[in-house]
Amino acid sequence: MLIDPSYHFDDLYVISDLHLGGEEGFQIFNQGDLLADFIDHLRQLPGDRRVCLVINGDLVDFLAEPDPRHFDPTGAAGKLDRILADPSFDMILPSLQRFLLTSRRHLAVTLGNHDLELALPWVRERLIERISDGDATARSRLYTVFDGTGFQAKVGGLSVLCTHGNETDILNVNDYERLRRIACQMAFGQSPEAWIPNAGTQLVIDVMSEIKKRYRFVDLLKPELTAAVPVLLALRPEYVTEIGKLIPFGRRVVTDWVRRRIRLLGEDDAESESSLEEEIEVRPLQEILGDAFGKETVEELDEDYLKWVEDQLEAGTDPESLAKDGERALLGRQLRFSDAWKKLDIRERLRRALLYLQKEQDFSLKHQDPMFKRMDRLVGKSVDVVITGHTHKPRSIPRSGGHYFNSGSWIQRIRSGSLALDDKEAFNEVYGDLSEGSQSRLTRYVEQEPVVVSICRAEGAVKGAIQRVGRFPSGLLEPVPDSEM
Q1: Cα torsion at 71, 369, 272, 112 (round to 10°)?
Q2: Separation CA 145–CA 163 (nearest Å)
Q3: Which residue, 408, 454, 383, 409, is CA-closest to 12?
Q4: How many CB atoms lie within 10 A of CB 225?
Q5: 143-180, pLDDT tens digit by residue?
Q6: CA distance 166 to 151
Q7: pLDDT, tens digit, for every residue of 11-53?
Q8: H-type helices in 262-389, by residue range?
Q9: Nearest-angstrom CA–CA distance, 318 and 315
Q10: N or C: more exposed end of the chain, with fewer CB within 10 A?
């Protein structure tokens, strides 16, 4: 049953994945002036229209901050202040304040997986206070949705659901119940229980944060698993065969998957028949590495493991202990590299991994990627428009009785087509640029495509589309062809 939302707008604009954060030289967002101009543009729309801007997850990136931690409940408010005051981003907060101080202008912020601490009451309050600038009227038009339910609104007669999308990503599940308990324990003056980071966070902190000091370009490969992991394994193949940083990463992947399948994360997903292969998207490693990957396929692991889980449940095994035992049952069959793969020159390993990504990374608007398929299963047909982010890939795809959009990202990303991957000799120069890692040497390989999803009521109808944001001859917004719903 769809609850009729209390928020009704004439125009809804959705952006996501700004990832504000990081020290100079390690910032993947560099569009502060353009973003401020875009927010001012929305503020200056006709005054009789009720306009809402949604920042749909990963507004800030606490994992990109100096001395990153898996979870930082005591330091996050201070980090938020630092990010908002950073010279690269300090024009954004005033534009948001001007926007909210304007009549009939509203702002909604949802939670992502890189800004998890915003869900803590004292961090959320700091965000609200800074954006509203202490003005009660502005505060009343600011909505924060940090509990996983998504921001629900109506434009004309259409229902719209905005959610970051990581709730469908086994690597990046937010444990909202544990968040609530920790917040409650700290409010009551108790020592909080240990935070168990999801696999994606462990990957970023335990592996990527160290490697990107040597290879900065790794941070420009998104999303982490399908884009960054193959490259990480090319740079450091020992992470697969040795007990090291990828072991807790793999353990968390499996544990979260088990817990979801036996309902310990609270997801009512009885109709989902997705396989482990689809859940963690590890198949690309098989295709990149070929025989070096190992003989057991993910499908075999999935079939065997599901049978083991079902047998254990039928035998009355406690689900909580089953989730823990399941780590060992599946992780005992780890991915393997052959000696031949390790002996390849690092340039050749990296070239092969990037060549695969160039072939496989599909940025076409209509591509039905795993995110779309999972959201299509998860969201009921009574929702007319579903808008996510998280994958950093814009999408506009019809679904039964409605439409799906992904609002992409504003960050920098490596443009694999510029890397001379088909020419081994030419790639040697590219490798030099990638390994040196300075901003000037990486610029030639980087692209950006700031976009916004717009859902607007006009002439008795509601129209939705993706629009590019930039300084075009016609103005700040330019329609993306074939993106209309």
Answers
A1: 20
A2: 9
A3: 454
A4: 23
A5: 999 999 999 999 998 999 999 999 888 778 899 999 99
A6: 14
A7: 999 999 999 999 988 899 999 999 999 999 999 999 999 999 9
A8: 276-280, 283-289, 298-314, 319-331, 339-343, 346-360, 370-378
A9: 9
A10: N
